[in-house]
Amino acid sequence: MNSSSPWNNGVIQRNHTTKRLTEIIRRALNGENVNIAIMGGSISAGGGLTFDNEDLRGMYYRVFSDWWQKTVEPLTGSVAKLHNLAVGGTSSNFFAFCYSVLLSPNTEMNLVFLDFTVNDYLQFRYSKFPMALSLEQLTREILSERNSPAVMFINFVHGVSKIPMCENLEVHGQKMLAQNYGITAFSLRSFLCSSPSVKWKKFPKMFTSDGNHASILAHAQMALMIINHVRQLMLSVLDRVIRSKEVIVTKFSLPTEDNKITLSDCPLKLSDLPESVFKSYRHDFSEHPLCFTQITPDCTTNNTIHQTLQVTEIGNIGFQVIQKVSINQRSPLNQIQPFQFQTFRTDGYGGWKSQSANSMLELEILIPFSKPECILEGTTPSRNVAVAVRTNGYGGTALLWLNEYEERGVLIDTSSMFGHTKLLTIARHVIPGRHVLSVRTQTPGTFILSGVMIGPTYK
């Protein structure tokens, strides 16, 4: 790795995120641990690297964590704890509903890496809504967390036969999000797509043998940009500390009354965010969403996913329950040793699976009532209901509907060249209470229902 100019040009710094990260660094200097969450698709899950037998400890966030462990931790006692939530073939719309379900309970994120530039572009490029809409929804959810985490956009480049495809989310709305919310972005596009002379040029060392995913060298260059950025900020903070001879730590404070902490029954979120970029689509946003999913970033643990939405099977003809099906896994998961050379991915999925036509599934969904004071401004007590399915090369179709409204059902086709997580809205303006989601397969083929989500309906 080197720190040549093209790589430095890949860092676009925004003051608002720098302020948040500065506070995290101040706390680290006081010995507080830093929780780092990684959300993304196959690149952050190790896609491509596993087939090249690369050590996954060379992925960008693990290199950053290793630098922190060797450089920052010995001086401060601050430990960087990684929480990798990445799942192959999964875009930001899934995480906007479900990231809190995938996190370990009571985990407060301090720093969040969002790696969706490739997946969101590939999945939403033909959609009728702005391509960066889902990323904005996720970004707002994270930035409004009560402990004010810092967010960074991690922008890799998709390849075709090791030729970089320069059209990605960066030029289709992500830059506007970065400017609006003050997000610092790290990009390989500024190097791989820096001039017309490199168009259609192959970069064999920057992609894995499949020609699509970021290579171990690309991960190293991404890690270098992140490390240099954090290091410079840390030196700046240390310089101010030395001059002032003190560390000032700013923390979120809960409301108090008579020196006693008072907790609201509503989800605690900060709301001092700028107006949304895609405000005309605000009815599609899902603040405080609820999620039930069998998609997991880690098939190797026995930890139970802490669902936020209650879903119960009440009828089943022809569906089987599957759990922890590994994504692009070639060897048994029990071979994985977390502190040794690692060449195995851990992400996977589960849910209800059918392979024949006329299979039938009924799920009871309990949509909770919200107290009047908890209903967000501009929203109603009713909810939107969405589902997550996993696509595959032999996918089938199914009709999904809520309650007795079969005539309003949504037909979902899960056939796709590449396996990915697909979200679709099934019903809108659904009142709180008990509801039944029905699924009936229409054609032979693999149909997998992997999740159910709800979010608010706007007036």
Automatic annotation (TrEMBL):
It comes from the Eukaryota. SUPFAM superfamilies: SGNH hydrolase (SSF52266). Gene3D superfamilies: SGNH hydrolase. InterPro entries: SGNH_hydro_sf (IPR036514). This is SGNH hydrolase-type esterase domain-containing protein. It comes from Desmophyllum pertusum. The lineage of its organism: Eukaryota, Metazoa, Cnidaria, Anthozoa, Hexacorallia.
